[in-house]
Amino acid sequence: xxxxxxxxxxxxxxxxxxxxxxxxxxxxxxxxxxxxxxxxxxxxxxxxxxxxxxxxxxxxxxxxxxxxxxxxxxxxxxxxxxxxxxxxxxxxxxxxxxxxxxxxxxxxxxxxxxxxxxxxxxxxxxxxxxxxxxxxxxxxxxxxxxxxxxxxxxxxxxxxxxxxxxxxxxxxxxxxxxxxxxxxxxxxxxxxxxxxxxxxxxxxxxxxxxxxxxxxxxxxxxxxxxxxxxxxxxxxxxxxxxxxxxxxxxxxxxxxxxxxxxxxxxxxxxxxxxxxxxxxxxxxxxxxxxxxxxxxxxxxxxxxxxxxxxxxxxxxxxxxxxxxxxxxxxxxxxxxxxxxxxxxxxxxxxxxxxxxxxxxxxxxxxxxxxxxxxxxx
Length: 377
Ligand SMILES: [Fe+2]
Hints:
Layout lengths: L9 E5 L3 H11 L4 E5 L2 H10 L4 E5 L7 H11 L4 E6 L4 H9 L4 E4 L4 H27 L9 H15 L14 H14 L1 H20 L4 H13 L3 H6 L14 H4 L2 H8 L7 H9 L20 H17 L9 H10 L7 H13 L20
Parallel strand pairs: 1-2, 1-3, 3-4, 4-5
The structure holds fe (ii) ion (FE2).
């Protein structure tokens, strides 16, 4: 990592124990400008007074928990990246930290090579996101009408890749990997909670897709479409809407537009038609009472019916509505009650079985006190 003195990023080390704090200082000093803080209060003061690129954050501080401080950092300084450093005993809370926006975590005693690699990777991600924030400010017209909207998104993607901000991409998505990387970064800088919702819906949808023995191409389309199903929310609310739920301030009639908006936003990326169909039709209902087209029964593409169930399940599990339970069985009961009306009845039981069987796998997805809410989309 050859970096000139003036180009060195600045890291804030937050740890109340002198041992780990000094070890981190010794390891990182050749590569970075450093500040240290022994408490959350001291860290907040440094963050308010200095330019900081990245924080290494101990889980246990004398005045607040690391996760609480993480939430404040993401609320007040969302461009600063955070890496959690934790003991084995608090691994679960470190995982919670990822949901609140931490870029990664390291277990104590940390491996020096892993530490440097994670910091380097996180700073590369920060450069991409900073570039994207700048590009998004230049493109406030992502709420335009077609064809302006598609043109605006195409220009944004072009500027992003021209700036060298592209990430290596996820090999699972083949020729679409760079588009996926770009859209992932867009979701992260516009609304992290929407990004988390997208990941959960993708997870649930692919479980059901695997059970139905879809072909490899169908599974890839389902994976992409499930992940992008609500991307139109960005187009509705505007790219810099921000840090909380995108739908909170949206008008109902605007909310109804997000499937169509999302499908149009994806046009410049030349994704498979099945992906666009999922985005366009994930709010159609089995009895024909959904939107935007009022499609009915098997007239709704199968993958869109799958994503409809997955996103309905996630809304019940984590949503802001009073019926949100956080209990898998109670959520499945609510899904079953809508079989044949909102949801395809032939898919509900397989989905319920899969979710019941793998409830233990939900711990990373389980509801937790959150800084923002999942919108009723
Ligand atoms: Fe939606």
